[in-house]
Amino acid sequence: MALKVKAKEKKLKFSKDENDPGIWRYVMVPDLYSTLDQDKVIKEAAIRSGVSEGVMQACWKGAGEVIKAWATEGHSVALPGLGNMRFGLSAKAVEKVEDVKTSLISTRRIIFTPTTALKEELANTSIQITCYDRLGNIVKRVTSADPGTVEDPENENSENTQNNEQGQQGSQSEQGNQSQQATTFALTISKTGIGSASVTKDGNAVTSGASLSEDDEVEISITPAEGQTPTATVNGSEIELTEDNGVYTGSFAMPGQASTLIINTGEGEDDDYDPNA
């Protein structure tokens, strides 16, 4: 078994200037199959467990009701063989306690944390990349040799803290004495709208406050709210996005300064960026 990825050659622009020639880059996106519906899942589970579809249907429904009831009471609920599911939220921070109110909450989230076995299975699954040129011709096929790093939502907060510290250190080194090491710059990421977005570099998630080097290529993938057209800007300059099966992708080279990436996924209230959304 292998995960399939498409790498398509696309022209990327970093400004609204009509004279901007843009640059051609191969942008990778997952090559997803159609959604496996509930009836198919139940049928396959019944075959593998040796019970009837009716029994499996009843068990499936019962487990779903238990998960829904306990998760909405604030529990982290185990999904047997898969991981845990819990409630989360994104909210704005305020300085004074009297300003704390529910209107600060922009979104409620469901956070899934996979089991170690599931993460190991994903990490050990190879990725097959098919490369298409700008004319849609297949020019290369390759099986990736990436380290198989799997994102861990439980360590998101500590990772953000570490990245913020690294960003501050990069800014201080820029202003202070010359160093033999490459200078890094903090990238602040904000997202508006109820769609989802991911920001990556070399296939690894980039969190807000991450410390990046100048000219690091940052890739963006956006699934907007239904019927909406997303936008993305870095330091006020619009990033050209290309659409494929409802997913918009683009990229930009990290500027040689602390920068701000703003992603608008469509209508909806402002939302803090979450690489796991």
Beta-strand residue fraction: 35-45%
**C-alpha geometry:** globular
Look at the structure and give the mean pLDDT: 80
Main sheet, how many strands, which sense, barrel?
6 strands, mixed
Write the layout of secondary structure elements.
Elements: E1 2-12, E2 23-30, H1 38-49, H2 53-71, E3 77-79, E4 83-91, E5 105-114, H3 116-124, E6 126-132, E7 138-143, H4 156-175, E8 184-192, E9 196-201, E10 204-205, E11 210-213, E12 217-223, E13 231-234, E14 237-238, E15 242-244, E16 247-253, E17 259-264, E18 270-272
Parallel strand pairs: 1-6, 8-17
Antiparallel strand pairs: 1-2, 3-4, 4-5, 6-7, 8-11, 8-18, 9-10, 9-12, 12-16, 13-14, 13-17, 15-16
Helix pairs in contact: 1-2
Can you give a write-up of this model?
With 277 residues, the protein is α+β, with helices and mostly antiparallel strands. It is 22% helix and 39% strand. Strands 8, 11, 13, 14, 17 and 18 form a six-stranded mixed beta sheet that branches. A hairpin with a 3-residue loop joins strand 3 (77-79) and strand 4. Helix 1 packs across helix 2. Residues 157-181 have low confidence and may be disordered.
